[in-house]
Amino acid sequence: MSTTPDLISIDWGTSSFRAYLADARGAAIETIASGEGALALNAGEHEPYIASQLAAWKARYPELPVIASGMVGARQGWLEAPYAACPAGFSEIAAATVVAPSASLGAVRIVPGVSAIDARGAPDVMRGEETQILGALQTSGVDHGVFVLPGTHSKWARVEGGRIVNFATFMTGEVFAVLKQHSVLGRMMAAPRENAEPTGFALGLDAAAALERPGELLHAIFMTRTFGLFNQVASDQLAEYLSGLLVGAEILAGARGASEAIVIGSAALTARYVGAGARLGVSMRAAPENCATLGQIAVLRGLSSSRATAKRSRRGP
Predict the structure, then answer these.
(1) For a surface tag, which of 76, 89, 173, 310 has the fewest beta carbons within 10 Å of its beta carbon?
(2) DSSP conformation letters of 30-77
(3) How many domains does the structure of the chain reveal?
(4) The CA-based dihedral angle spanning residues 34, 167, 159, 150, taken in that order and rounded to the nearest 10 degrees
(5) Is residue 253 part of a domain?
(6) DSSP string of 105-165?
(7) In a domain, 1, yes or no
(8) Are residues 165 and 43 in the same domain?
(9) Quick check: is 11 in a domain?
(10) Omega within 30 of 0 (cis) for the link into 101
């Protein structure tokens, strides 16, 4: 692995801050991590926070470019980077980046989010995931396909010709957390036993596969309680059942008939989706975990290429 840093990469989401001193291949030489989400700070606090986090790196490497993606570019973040509309690929996203001036950091490039309009005319948005998709495209060797980014708000994106043409958001992780923590369902759930086989997860996936109409999901969710009441599912597997049901419903809706997808996420969550997809007939493969940094590198290269082209154009033939 190269030990020469090429950029400072920031992935700043709703609930966490991650910064990487990265080489030209996107490998992290050093990492900084905290639980300070971009939306937890007030206006005027973002630049001082980033500066304090990166002070040691910038002292050693003052000329390194700094690029950030995620909720740092939201309206409530440091500086709003307006959404690039689908279809959006490397050139469109690079052109829509904004520069946040900083006396201590220099110009910080912020990657925009991406917006889409579904078949019903309803808008959808993502921030940060578009950069990860760009990174996955760099390493996958393809310029089309279905990309899955599981999490609190899972994204299912379709890419054609290297551009995100549409996507859909599923509130899977957040709905699971709310139902578990703030509904009657959570009262019967016990903590999973150590090394226990997650049989409840498979049961939930099968229940999702059996749904025939959208509203049936609401009925299947309530079964989390009745399975516990009648001892048909062990209390330590009830949360797994609910998780499998929601993840399964997401996969079936998000895939929209696709038989293959690339998953971008943490190792644990990716493994969960790969296994779920196999049970539901959707073959999934994992993308590298450093897709955000890889995407940011692609954006920086796109900007450099655009500037070089503009310079040649000004000189004339």
Answers:
(1) 310
(2) EEEEES--GGGSPTT-HHHHHHHHHHHHHHH-TT--EEEEEGGGSTTS
(3) 2
(4) 40
(5) yes
(6) T-PEEE---EEEE-TTS-EEEESSHHHHHHHHHHHHS-S-EEEEE-STTEEEEEEETTEEE
(7) no
(8) yes
(9) yes
(10) no
Q: Is 2 a domain residue?
A: no
29-73 residue pLDDT tens: 999 999 999 999 999 999 999 999 999 999 999 999 999 999 999
**Do 155 and 71 have their domain in common?**
yes
Domain match, 11 and 73 both = yes
Cα dihedral value 297, 156, 171, 77, nearest 10: 20
Q: Interhelix angle for 199-209 vs 216-229, to 10°?
A: 150
CATH code, domain with 145: 3.30.420.300
Structure tokens at 197: 């086989």
- Domain assignment of residue 227, given as a range: 172-286
Q: What is the pTM of this model?
A: 0.92
User: Distance (Å, rounded) from C-alpha 267 to C-alpha 16?
Assistant: 17
Q: Are residues 12 and 100 in the same domain?
A: yes
pLDDT in tens, 256-296: 999 999 999 999 999 999 999 999 999 999 999 999 999 99
What the block records as the tokens of 235 is: 């209390």
